[in-house]
Amino acid sequence: MNLRFALWLLALIPLTASATSIESLVMPGPVIEGHADVEQECSSCHAPFSQATQRGLCLECHEDISADLAAKHGFHGTDGRLEETACRDCHTEHEGRDADIVGLVPEAFDHTLTGFVLDGGHSTLSCADCHAADSPFRDAEPACRSCHEADDPHRGNLGDDCAACHAPSAWDDVGFDHTAETDFALLGGHDGLACEACHIGQVYEDTPAECANCHALDDVHHGERGSACGDCHSEERWQETQFDHAAETGFALHGSHADLTCAACHLDNMALAQPPQACAGCHSADDVHQGQRGDQCGDCHGERTWEVEFDHLDRTGFALRGAHAALACNQCHLGSLSDELPTDCAQCHQADDPHAGDLTDCAACHGVSEWRSPIRFDHDFARFPLLGMHKLAVCEQCHFTLEFQAAPDACDDCHGDDDVHDGSLGPACDDCHVPSGWALWEFDHDNQTDFPLTGAHTDLVCAACHEPGDPDALDVAQACASCHQTDDVHNGQFGSRCERCHNTDSFQDDAGFF
Fold first, then answer.
1. Angle between helices 63-71 and 54-61 (to 10 degrees)
2. Which residues have C-beta within 8 Å of that of residue 340, sequence separation ≥ 6?
3. For the residues 77-93, what does the mean pLDDT come to?
4. Half-sphere exposure of 325 (CA within 13 A, CB side)
5. Please, what is the end-to-end C-alpha distance for the chain in angstroms?
6. What is the 3-state secondary structure (H, E, C) of 311-350?
7. How many angstroms separate the CA atoms of 88 and 226, rounded?
8. pLDDT at 18
9. Half-sphere exposure of 443 (CA within 13 A, CB side)
10. Residue 122 near residue 169 (C-beta atoms within 8 A)
């Protein structure tokens, strides 16, 4: 029945009717008021026999939605599910002029998808508080000033980024990191100040950061100490002063300097003239040396009193001990203190040297308390250690003059008169004699010579073979005939090798011939 009715209607339409009129006849129903102007142009939203192109036709008109999708911005661009979704899946048309094709359910809408999170005080607002009834939702401005311009006490002087200081929880909930954002930390007394205390008239740009810009009226120095007030004054209270003189100037205030007022040294404008740091710059009138000791007064004088305090060992490497400790500086330092002085004894005590410069290490014998006594000398460390009876000798027995190094060290130099060999055995007396006693001696003829003493030879005295006084006494021939020629009954007929028949026990005994 419906089919017949449709055919009957078509029969009534003149053949000259346009295709648009035919489409209008089969339209499901009126479109919303916003689309009424294109209602007669079906091709504005529909392509014949192609539903796939409908999304593109929608976006051609709704350019702002198309831009959001391309930029992935706003509600349509943020929700990834809408990238390929057809517009008609959410927005159904042809349901009348007053139909709601948006289909928004406020209670179920995720506002995060718009890029504007509703947190803090925003979370309790209704849609109408931000979205005007006669405007699309997307037209609502996300900038704080769009809603809070009347609440802005800064009258726009701080720009539009209200969130840099104000929190969404409440407009009065202000949080601003003055240190990070301005490089000027609010410490001490600055911490409790209202913004207007420094930012007069809500002017925030180019606010001066120098102390003097705000505290000029508090400056009792009238600018004579410069503009760096923070070097001395505390941020807790302007009246509290603190200044690390050592760190800031390189001149530490110790001793009596610590009790001085600034004006005691800073006679002129601090910003223009700095007082001298050398002691002489302030204490020239107190210098009893009249500049002869240089300008490093601190090397000797202390900072608590003008009395002398000088660690001679630490400063010079020369300790003042004994009699040196009581000397006045000018007894050694005849000129300037900067003149280098010798540290060896002989340079100062040359006139007191009885050794005529022969001995250079005075400290080896002399002490620093008294030059002449007590005198000490460890002979064991000399080239001639004192052993045996030598320990009992007094210095004068060997050292006939105070030129000690000239003393001889060979035995016969001192014991020549005691030499019973009359020099025939050479100067090396210690080969036989020992320091414990001149009469105590021993000589191992078997090991110390190449002629062992055997038989009757063992009882011979040295002079029996080594004639005293003979300079060649040590060069004795070892052949038997050289000593026993007079005992040779053979008158040399059997040669000089007597040992072939005779032995050393007795020349008369026949040892046998072989």
1. 110
2. none
3. 85
4. 7
5. 175
6. CHHHHHCCCCCHHHHHCCHHHHCCCCCCCCCCCCHHHHCH
7. 76
8. 46
9. 17
10. no
User: What percent of the chain shows pLDDT beyond 90?
Assistant: 1
Residue 86, SS3 per DSSP: coil
pLDDT the model gives residue 377: 82
Classified as helix, coil or strand, 502 is strand
Contact between 103 and 91 under an 8 Å Cβ cutoff? The reply is: yes
Place of tokens 């091709």: 43
Q: Is the dihedral of CA 86, 90, 93, 97 positive or negative?
A: negative
Residue 491: CA count within 13 A, CB half-sphere: 0
Residue-wise pLDDT tens digits, 446-479? 888 888 988 889 888 888 888 887 878 888 888 8
Q: Taking the CB of residue 462, how many other CB atoms lie within 10 A of it? A: 16
Residue entry with tokens 């995720």: 110
> pLDDT at position 13, please?
46
Query: With bands split at pLDDT 50, 70 and 90, how would you rate the model's confidence at 30?
Result: very high
At 166, which helix (H) or strand (E)?
strand 166-167
Pairing of strands 437-441, 433-434: antiparallel
For residue 344, the tally of other CB atoms under 10 A from its CB is 11
Angle, CA of 155, 161 and 163, to the nearest 5°: 110
The residues pairing with 174 across neighbouring beta strands, listed in sequence order, are 166
Mean pLDDT of 383-401: 87
- Contact present, 116 and 123 (Cβ < 8 Å): no
pLDDT of res. 23: 65
Prior bond to 452 cis, omega within 30? no
What residue type is 61 in one-letter code? C
129: left (phi over 0), alpha (psi -120 to 50) or beta: alpha
Residue 510 has pLDDT above 70, yes or no: no
What is the rounded CA–CA span in Å between residue 272 and residue 227? 12
Contacts (Cβ under 8 Å, ≥6 apart) of 506: 455, 456
